[in-house]
Amino acid sequence: MTALLGIWFGVGLMIDAWAHGNLAELETFFTPWHAVFYSGFAVVSGWISWQVWRNVRAGRQGPAAVPTGYLAGLLAIPAFAAFGIADMTWHTVLGIETTINIFFSPSHLGLVVTMMLIITTPLRSAWNAPDVGARPSLGRLLPALLGLAFATTLVSLFLSYGDALQYRPQAIVQAFSMAQGSGAAPRGGGPVAVGPSAERVAVAMAVTNVVMLAPVLFLVRRWLLPFGSVTVMYAVMTLMPGAQTSFRSLPILLSFVVAGFVSDLLIRRLRPSGERRAAYWAFAGLSAFVTWSLYIGAASATGGGLPAVPELWTGAPIVAGLIGLALGVLFLPNAATAHPVPPSAATAGRTRSDSGRA
């Protein structure tokens, strides 16, 4: 139920993001979009609070009354409310943000951090749940997947100025057809419409690669993800850029859903985990390479053909794969021990060894 109500909360923010990105003027804090968003907060915070209150009535006291994984979300509820009041005051006094400044507003940053703590409650709950195990089913892990995926959409929202999923196929092909910079003509000559530069698209690809792959690697280190997990996560992650652009870049968004499916196939084949470092690294690099190969492929298929600069469209997925590999190394520099030795046993072993030498 926490994950389900969290979807209401997350979708409410997506609707608000759509309004900010597609409506000409928003002159007041009191809009239907804010109503959906803040009502989502009300229901999910009410549910979390009820879980704690129910335990208190059952006789539990203090931290024991808070369900596993719920403490951070519980503490974030009053903080989110305070930032909401601050946001209303900010808009009343200084007006409504309409440009990139919306992503740097202190009240907005406070809202997104506390919201992230609230909607990832199912993830923290599953992380320590004894019934989840190392190989959970998709149904058992789904609330955690949804919570983390919606949290990732918050990151992508506040990094919208570096989100590669917001570019249309034609803009991607045009950018990668430039000989140099945004002012150069594509190879082959002829006038072109003004669009993003190759540099801007390349940077956006790198940023989006990290934002979307990092949560998957985080989960893969903890669990052997059931088939369909990455597909579900990537499908959710595409909703925020889709809402911001009114889904005008649908082929690009769908390419990520396909990439999620291919990543699920890679997990099934490679079985990456914290104990299988080589497989983990291979998955990180291959998943990123496939994802951005599909991105370029979808842009080319629906945006007018392959870009004119072969170094860009062939090298960009390779760079993405190398970034993915680097992430894998950072997340898992050393293979985890499947059955760690308890500290007491290790101490006893050293004591016996020292006694033997004596």
Rg over C-alpha atoms, rounded to the nearest angstrom? 23 Å
Helix percentage range: 55-70%
Describe the sheet with the most strands.
Answer: none
What distance separates the N and C termini?
Answer: 61 Å
Instruction: State the low-pLDDT regions, or none.
Output: 180-192, 339-358
Number of domains: 2
Q: How much strand?
A: under 5%
Shape: flat
Q: Structural class per helix/strand content? A: mainly alpha
Can you write the helix and strand succession as a string?
A: HHHHHHHHHHHHHH
- The beta-strand count equals 0
Count the helices. How many? 14
Mean pLDDT: 85
Transmembrane segments: 35-53, 65-86, 98-120, 141-161, 201-219, 249-267, 279-300, 312-332
Keywords: Membrane, Transmembrane, Transmembrane helix
Provide a concise account of the structure shown:
The chain crosses the membrane at residues 35-53, 65-86, 98-120, 141-161, 201-219, 249-267, 279-300, 312-332. This protein has 358 residues and is mainly α.
